[in-house]
Amino acid sequence: HTGEKPFGCPDCGKSFCTSSSLVIHRRSHTGEKPFPCSSCDKSFVSRSALVKHLRTHLPKEPPDGAR
C-alpha cells in the first residue's frame, strides 16, 4: 500500500485510493442513494451500507447459552 490517492473529488478536493470510493463519496454531494431497503423507506449510498442496515430488520439473536 503506497498511500497514493489519485482519485480526487472535483467538488471538494478530497482524494481516494479507488475510483469506486470516489463514486460513493460523490453521492454525498448529489444526494443520490441508489440502494433502497425493501423493508422500509430508507435508501443508501452504497450496497455495503444497505447490507449493514438490513441487519436491523432481522430478529435479535439470544446471547450465547440462552434458549
The SSE order reads: EEHEEH
Largest sheet at a glance?
2 strands, antiparallel
As a percent range, the share of helical residues equals 25-40%
- Number of separate structural domains: 1
The fraction of residues assigned to DSSP E strands is: 5-15%
The CATH architecture term is 2-Layer Sandwich
Oligomerization state: single chain
For this structure, the CATH topology is Double Stranded RNA Binding Domain
- Give the strand line-up of the largest sheet: 1-2
Q: How far is it from the N-terminal to the C-terminal residue, by CA?
A: 46 Å
- Shape field: elongated
Write down the Rg.
17 Å
Count of helical regions: 2
Domain C2H2-type: 7-34, 35-62
InterPro entries: Znf_C2H2_sf, Znf_C2H2_type
Keywords: Metal-binding, Nucleus, Repeat, Transcription, Transcription regulation, Zinc, Zinc-finger
Protein name: ZN554 protein
Report on this structure.
The protein has 67 residues and is of the alpha+beta class. It has a single domain, classed as Classic Zinc Finger (Double Stranded RNA Binding Domain), CATH 3.30.160. The chain is built from two helices and four strands; from the N terminus they run ββαββα. The strands form two sheets. It has a two-stranded antiparallel sheet with strand order 1-2. Strands 3-4 form a two-stranded antiparallel sheet. A hairpin with a 6-residue loop joins β3 and β4. The longest helix is centred in the middle third of the chain and has 12 residues. The radius of gyration is 17 Å and the shape is elongated. The termini are far apart.
